[in-house]
Amino acid sequence: MADKPYESAWAHSMTTKEQVTVIGRLFKFAAPYKWFFIVSVILSATISAVNVFLPWLLQMYMDRYLRTSNATIAIMWMFAGLYFLGMLTRAIMQFWQNYTSTMGAEYMLENVRRKLFSQLHKKGMRYFDQTPGGSILSRLMNDTMTFSNFWALLNTLMLAIFAVISSFIAMAVTDMTVALWTLVLVPFLTITIWYYQHYSSKVYRRMRERLSELNTKLAEAITGISVIQEFRQEKRTATNFEKTNEAYYDTRKAMIRTNSLLLSPIINLFYALGTVIVLSIFGIRGLHEVVAAGVIYAFITYLNNFYSPMSNMMDSLSDFQNGMVAGSRVLKVVDDQTLAPAQHPVADAEITQGKVEFRHVTFAYDQEHPVLKDVSFVAEPGQTVALVGQTGSGKTSTINVLMRFYEFQSGEVLIDDRDIREYPAEELRAKMGLVLQEPQLFYGDIQTNIRMFNPTISDDQVQQAAHFVQADEFIERLPKGYATPVLERGTEYSAGQRQLITFARTVVTDPKILILDEATANVDTETETMIQNGLNRIQENRTTIAIAHRLSTIQNADLILVLNQGKIVERGTNDELMAQHGYYYDMIQLQNAAHEE
Fold it and tell me: What is the pLDDT of residues 122-131, one digit of tens each?
């Protein structure tokens, strides 16, 4: 039961008010490209006029010339030429109408993805903690692509509206009585469209939810493939994926069944009934008077022009419902207010010394259960402050607050005696260097990973940074040196090599404040020695805040803070803390005993 697909609140039908709201907001995305859609609407109206003109032209030819035997070669060629010219004009206009509407949709799709991608990077870390990566990917790619098809419906809808209006006017001009009889079926058609719109939105919502779950399962299985294989979880993973895939298949099947019944077949049925009504009326009338063949031909053609666009529109309603659901999911990402902590920059705010101070800081991830409780300390410029403690003691949370990944609830965080919120975000990122326990490399080459795609950093600066942290020793032994490719996550390099590259990436920006999150926790002793040498050079003339897993690496720190359950329980140098025989002393003894074993 635990693996049963989750039935979210998204899997209910959308109300008319919700759909109108989504449409209104989607129009705002399309606003910069409105001329594409305006031209498309004008061409739709013109095409409808041509569609009325062509049957009328043949009706005139049939009733005025063929029926009365007044047709001549010249008249025949004249009508043939006019008909050919009308068909050619319609074909050209159909091309441009389709081109303008499609290109407008494509430009809008590009605009939406760009804005959505930008919006994602403005969100705080809490959003990514709570939202699976596969779900985000599904909304950025699948949902945006789907609701761009919404404009295909507008294209078809414009054609249908103009076609219905022009065709009915043409029928009314030809024969008002018969034209009014054709409206008998319109209420039934309206009810069908309403029912489809109401029922299918629920099906499409459930389908998009299942697709999001499917993407999440795929992303998790691909990124965790090594762990899955190591613990022989292939069968369980495949079973879970199969259940999610089966649930997605069921919703797809429900969607296909709904569309197969309520789209083109029902419209074709109404068209057939309308044709029966028209032919019956003209048939009964023909028992008492002569009915011109041209009139019957024109009327049937107008009727076809009346229902055919509706058939196309009903086919597009599937895209419409899919687009509505996808659009609402994308807008949910846009509307999410889990934003990165706000800065209130002061014009002259600049980090020059690198002094860091926490004053009675309290912080909770969920706003209710503090993980940092009344934390206070000062890191003077050029000093190294180490954070130690058991798992969950608050070390990483302290870094998260200092890096402005999360907003703290009370207290003050100061840099150079100025509130951290008074610095522009760009200044904080430029003057603070972060090295994580798990080094992250990006697809490209070593050089671009060190400069992080910043074109203002020269090749010489890249090489100097690598030399500074002693990463040049292994880089220059590679076949292509700094141009050696880096594949996804840099898995072709050892953990120590990846970490040295991230050190070079940090030092090339010359930060004033260096933050180390257990930077040597996952490497061997020999590599740790290389990294430690690199660290010692990086820390020169910089304020360093370091989370230490191996306590031997921070014994020379100027200040060691021992955290326990979110509070600083001890502070001092290594010698001072050892003399106290407290928490720190016990941790050292435990690590030494573990090494001796």
Answer: 887 778 877 7
